Backbone:
């Protein structure tokens, strides 16, 4: 993760949390039902939500109780950005969808 340290720090990440983030990124693709690292749990659910693009999202595999409420938002983001190669545009659209979401699931 050394190449991304400055990126995370500029984004306001607490330097003490960098090892937690590094562990989550390293372990999120492992077949662990419920990782001990809370960041890895969120990352696994985010990856699962991204499966709307492939048409094979299985809501039963989501780990956090509120994640299923985000499925419509994942579908909305996919529809808006499906043919976009502009990652900055995708980021802004995702941020707008997030800001418009129900605050109780944040």
Residues:
């Amino acid at each position: 993760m050394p190449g991304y340290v400055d990126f995370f720090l500029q984004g306001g990440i607490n330097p003490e949390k960098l090892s937690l983030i590094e562990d989550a990124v390293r372990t999120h693709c492992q077949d662990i039902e419920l990782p001990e690292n809370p960041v890895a749990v969120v990352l696994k659910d985010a990856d699962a939500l991204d499966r709307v693009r492939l048409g094979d999202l299985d809501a039963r595999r989501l780990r956090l109780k509120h994640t299923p409420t985000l499925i419509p938002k994942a579908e909305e983001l996919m529809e808006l950005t499906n043919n976009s190669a502009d990652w900055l545009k995708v980021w802004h659209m995702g941020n707008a969808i997030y800001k418009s979401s129900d605050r109780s699931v944040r």
Q: What stands out?
A: Residues 87-100 form the longest helix (14 residues).
